Amino acid sequence: MKELMTICLMATMCVLGISAQEKKSCGNDCCKEQSGGDCCKEKSIYDIKVKDDAGKDVSLADYKGKVLLIVNTATRCGFTPQYKELEALYEKYHSEGLEILDFPCNQFGEQAPGTIQEIHQFCTANFDIEFPQFDKIDVNGENESPLFTYLKALKGFGGFDLNDQTGKMMDQMLRKRDANYDKNPDIKWNFTKFLVSRDGRVMKRYEPTDKMASIEADIQSALNNKSNINTVESMKSFKSNPWMLPQPVLIIGTYNKEGKPNAMNAAWGGQWDMHEIIISLSSHATTDNLKENDALTVSFATAETMVAADYVGIVSGRNTPDKMARTGWTIEKAPNVNAPVFTNLPLTLECRVKEKMDESETGYYLVAEIVNILCDEKYLAEDGNPDVEKMGIITYDPIHHTYIQLGKTVGKAFSDGKQLK
């Protein structure tokens, strides 16, 4: 019954007070983020100052190294009993580095009336709070606090849990007032919370209906410096780069018109269709050979053959007549196409050219049909099929320009994911 009365009180206040949420520009420089600028994303939370309950400036830099839970609160709201839960979190985790920063706000149904001193007296008398309370602020509109401008720019509204009775009720009431209320990052009600990591990253936003148990779990992770609440804001941005991962180390074998074998190293290639592959080729001896002969082999470099595989990628067959002799590889003619097989490599695709796309003087995209696949028997699994784990195949790291050996099997494709159904 008490819970029902609380919800009813909240509903009444919501209807009376929701008009206080006007969608206005905040007027602060930091708000440029919400209108297409990038000020907020570049500014650190530690550059922001707030006022304490005595009206004195406090720099959030004072909280560097702490995990912060920032909350806008009210004393006459259906969610006001959350003060008790917040205090419990504070007492439990403060010694480990948690700080709860309380910002009373009177914008939602005028549910935080009185001075900050009166609010503080109410909270200490009813909930014995010990975490710091700051001066009353606006969290939306032209007078909103720069802190909440910053927080909202990085963590917009993610919606209420519609499977939760209170969350569903909040959604219905807010949508009745504004059908598109969920399309902006505004604070929707009292007791919205933001979790900030020890290094100042805004990790997560919680609506007032979110369960405190879930918030506590995230606080524990943040205190332990775990990275399971990664956010876009925590990621470093890079310009466009050819970093599709993993990239293969393909050894392409061809014959010239005199039947002399050549090999080149290529990374930009992959499966094109069930029986076709595609490789991006720039102008090389390989492309010269493919003008005379429409056959090629594609093999996979290994840790064992890495040095020679790198060599054939940096030396041109046009300029080095004994290129293949220097590799030390054993070479035989493929049984099904007119192309060489490098028997030191565990797996070889025998292919025929099907199409050359976007052909120019600098190269083209080669689409080739897989005619047959050869595998050294020592690399077969018990089921008779090639065992990739045995081969020691390497991949190319285009970021650091290194080769990385493939590791162990970690799961079953098209199977392990079923546990989440």
Describe the structure.
This protein has 11 helices and 18 strands. The protein has 421 residues and is an alpha+beta fold. The longest helix is centred in the N-terminal third of the chain and has 16 residues, at 2-17. The radius of gyration is 32 Å and the shape is elongated. 33% of the residues are buried.
Sheet with most strands: strand arrangement:
9-8-12-15-16-11-10
Using only CA atoms, what is the Rg? 32 Å
The run of helices and strands is HHEEEHEHHHEEHEEEEEHEHHEEEEHEE
| N/C terminus separation | 37 Å
Q: What is the quaternary state of this protein?
A: single chain
Determine the structural class based on helices, strands and strand pairing. Answer: alpha+beta
What is the tally of helical segments? 11
The fraction of residues assigned to DSSP E strands is: 15-25%
Low-confidence region ranges: 1-39
> Care to count the β-strands?
18
What's this entry about, in short?
This protein is of the alpha+beta class and about 425 residues long. Helix content is about 25%, strand content about 25%.
Describe how the helices and strands are arranged:
Layout: H1 2-17, H2 39-42, E1 49-51, E2 57-59, E3 67-73, H3 82-93, E4 98-104, H4 116-127, H5 146-154, H6 165-177, E5 193-196, E6 202-206, H7 212-223, E7 247-248, E8 250-255, E9 261-266, E10 269-273, E11 276-282, H8 285-292, E12 295-300, H9 306-314, H10 323-327, E13 331-333, E14 340-342, E15 347-360, E16 363-375, H11 388-391, E17 394-397, E18 402-405
Parallel strand pairs: 3-4
Antiparallel strand pairs: 1-2, 3-5, 5-6, 7-17, 8-9, 8-12, 10-11, 11-16, 12-15, 13-14, 15-16, 17-18
Helix pairs in contact: 1-6
